[in-house]
Amino acid sequence: DIVMTQSPDSLAVSLGERATINCKSSQSVLYSSNNENYFAWYQQKPGQPPKLLIYWASTRESGVPDRFSGSGSGTDFTLTISSLQAEDVAVYYCQQYYTTPCSFGQGTKLEIK
Amino acid sequence: EVQLLQSGGDLVQPGGSLRLSCAASGFTFNNYAMSWVRQAPGKGLEWVSTISGSGGKTFYADSVKGRFTISRDNSKNTLYLQMNGLRAEDTAIYYCAKNSSGHSYFDYWGQGTLVTVSS
Questions:
Q1: Any residues with CB less than 8 A from the CB of B42 and at least 6 apart, and which?
Q2: C-alpha distance from A56 to closest chain B C-alpha (Å)
């Protein structure tokens, strides 16, 4: 099974500053036949279900603010929030869907400094 | 608007059974695979099971294989999870989730339902 490891486990960033969360997979999630990374990011606020932010590693879900961006390929991926807003306080999870079982990272808790 | 309305969570004794339901609306239900994902208290997300749009293919995490059964009734736009032989480690919020077209990221999630396994 593919293991997803996020870093850091928690992060405190000032309002308006950039936040960066990393995720590493134990094997590549890049499918060579279509050159797509089978990788997604989710945001979960307290008491709510997860919300899809990014899929195919860099495609923003409809309605997600453009301050959220995803990058990376193969085994190393990054979620960047360009200018942190108060409503971005949440836990962020990465997910690979290259294989069954799909798997999630352990989560990164993002707070305001 | 896509909606996934869950029901069925409860307190159950170890070894007991429970059935979760997830009523879907706002999309053509039988065109999409559906899944269950759980989250133990204060922990991360764990995929549990997926069923194809027709119901003909099912997939399970090793941790629940042989104990849980995923099913769907496309005439009722409803997804189910039958949970037997429940263990304390099955205690979690269970979310139903809609799979994106043809792939396994989850574009919509239910509100979650709490299953507590305790004597």
A1: none
A2: 9
Using CB atoms, pick whichever of A42, A102, A106 lies closest to residue B104.
A102
User: What's the CA gap between A85 and A67, in Å, rounded?
Assistant: 9
Separation between Cα atoms, residue A59 and residue A72, nearest integer Å: 12
From first to last of its 119 residues, chain B has per-residue pLDDT tens of: 999 999 999 999 999 999 999 999 999 999 999 999 999 999 999 999 999 999 999 999 999 999 999 999 999 999 999 999 999 999 999 999 999 976 689 999 999 999 999 99
- DSSP type of residue A28: -
- Give the Å distances, CA to CA, from B44 to A8, A103, A113, B82: 15, 11, 23, 22
Q: Could you report how far apart the first and last alpha carbons of chain A are, in Å?
A: 36
**Closest residue in chain B to residue A40, using alpha carbons only:** B105
> How big is the CA angle at B46 (ends B69 and B36), to the nearest 5 degrees?
40
Give Cα separations from A42 to A101, B52, B106 (angstroms): 17, 22, 9
Cβ contacts of A51 on chain B, cutoff 8 Å: 109
